[in-house]
Amino acid sequence: MTKRLDRALCLAAVSATILLSACGGHTAVPSSGTSTGPSSVPSSGTSTAASAAQTPSSQGATTERVDAWFVDGGHAELTRLTVAIVGVGHASDTFAALGAACAKLAAAVASAQAGPPVPDAAAQASLTGALADYAKSAGDCQAGASAHNDALISKAATATSAATSYLQRFETETEDAQTKEVQSEEARRCKQLYQAWEDGPAHAAISQFLTALNALQVAESGTNLPAITTAAEKAAQPAAQLARDPVPACADPADDFAQILATVRTAAASVATAKSQSAVVQAQAPLKGVPVLEAAFTAEVKTATGT
Question: What is the per-residue DSSP string for 170-233?
Fold first, then answer.
């Protein structure tokens, strides 16, 4: 019994790894002990040749629809299924624990089967095959755990292996949409983090810094030493505060905003100790690069947050 339970748990874990990959948009590595193709393929109404004959525009439209499917509930259902499969893989080596885990798998499969179909015939066929085999696996697993029947546990493991193969196919067929969905999700998370930073405790310092930075850029275009010194000092204060409360890394991967803050603070310190007009000019020279950094930072934020 122990050997068969181990086999079932191992195959469930392999399936979970592949399904996690499908949910996250990463390429899965098949297990060497897992079959590379399902024993039977449900009719999808779309042949491989037909899929290959799609025009770029039709492929793009399909990707958009599949992406919408992921966003509108598909991703959530696959995540729930993943958690259930991982639960089977982590069930302790007892019939009772395995039976409980497989009951949760059966519920997750039923929920996924009741959801909207994938708007791509081939992908839907693969997902249908995977869910059908997971349903078989869950049923045999529960029955085997209840009856302490090794043969049913082994049968459940075989169905799990077949489901894994379908999911590998599903991942390939939805790869573009998965990638886009992941990118969209990352942009949504980054936008939330950036807005929380922009509207949170750093809000006052951001406003003060932008106002002071504009005043500094106006002042340093002239020759009034006291005005330049004052403007630099006013800009350095909120810059120091923002350095302690940095912008979320996802919105500034190149550290452009951090460079702006460092440039302003360094220039302010140099201007404050300058004893001549030429020294002031030299101290403020690095500020000439701030507009370029500002433009780069603005572009990064737009890209990272999808705005």
Answer: HHHHTHHHHHHHHHHHHHHHHHHHHHHHHHTTTHHHHHHHHHHHHHHHHHTTS--HHHHHHHHH
Tens of pLDDT, residues 246-290 = 999 999 999 999 999 999 888 888 877 877 778 877 887 888 888
| Cβ-Cβ contacts under 8 Å for 113 (sequence gap 6 or more) | 131, 135
Exposed, middle or buried, 225 (CB in 10 Å: 0-12/13-18/19+)? middle
Q: How far is CA 4 from CA 1, 152, 163, in A?
A: 5, 10, 18
pLDDT tens string 109-142:
999 999 999 999 999 999 999 999 999 999 999 9
Task: Identify the band that residue 172 occupies on the pLDDT scale cut at 50, 70 and 90.
Answer: confident
pTM higher than 0.90: no
- In this structure, the number of other CB atoms found within 10 A of the CB of residue 58 comes to 10
Q: Residue ranges of the domains in the chain?
A: 2-184, 200-305
d(CA 5, CA 92): 9
CA dist., res. 155 & res. 8, Å (int)? 9
How much is the average pLDDT of 92-117? 92
User: For residue 142, how many C-alpha atoms fall within 13 Å in the half-sphere facing its CB?
Assistant: 13
Contact 254, 198 (CB under 8 A): no
Count of CA atoms in the C-beta half-sphere (13 A) of 196? 8
Stated length of the chain: 307
pLDDT surpasses 70 at 28: no
